[in-house]
Amino acid sequence: MKAMGNDMQNILAAINNEDWSAIKQSAVNIAEHPKPPFTEKIRILSFIGTDTAQFKKLDTITHNTAMELVKLAEQENGNAIIDKFAQLQKSCLNCHQSFRKPFQAHFYGK
Ligand code: HEC
User: Fold this and answer.
1) Ligand 1 atom nearest 7 alpha carbon
2) pLDDT tens string 32-72
3) What is the dihedral of CA 17, 20, 25, 30, to 10 degrees?
4) Which residues contact 51 (CB under 8 A, 6 or more apart)?
5) Which of 9, 60, 96, 101 is the pocket-test mutation for ligand 1 (most atoms within 8 Å of CB)?
């Protein structure tokens, strides 16, 4: 997750520099973000419980939006990239607003 935050910052900087290949690389990283190790995944999913479907749906939306951003970077379509980036940010926010707080309380005692 921390890496995803860094990738988002890299995309923002790359948009300002019109560095399309850097945008593409970071969007690929987000789309293919590493899944947690199996045991951790079990812990996470058992904690989410009945909300698993919703969690997966939000994860898929982030994945698909990042893939669309990859395509736009290949087309060097600056305006569309900026709109898509905003959508990507919203997809992160949507999951965080539902899941981040209870997660951190449960797993890290925050
Ligand atoms: C399907 C749900 C989901 C999506 C989508 C999601 N996140 Fe998260 N994210 C979480 C949860 C749950 C946590 C809290 C648990 C944790 O820190 O691992 C979190 C925590 C984080 C953190 C804090 C990590 C830390 O070590 O303090 C960052 C940064 C982050 N997410 C970035 C992103 C970015 C950027 C995106 C979109 C590109 C994104 N996340 C999309 C669920 C999601």
Assistant:
1) 35
2) 987 766 677 777 777 777 688 888 899 999 999 999 999 99
3) 80
4) 98, 99
5) 96
Q: Distance between CA atoms of 4 and 22, rounded to whole angstroms?
A: 14
Q: Within a 10 A sphere around the Cβ of 90, how many other Cβ atoms?
A: 12
Residue 26 near residue 12, CB atoms below 8 Å: no
For 46, 63, 94, the CA distances from 24, given in Å and listed in that order, are: 34, 14, 23
| Domain 2-105, CATH class in plain words | mainly alpha
Residues 48, 23: Cα–Cα separation, whole Å: 32
Could you report the per-residue pLDDT of 61-102, keeping only the tens digit for each? Answer: 999 999 999 999 999 999 999 999 999 999 999 989 888 777
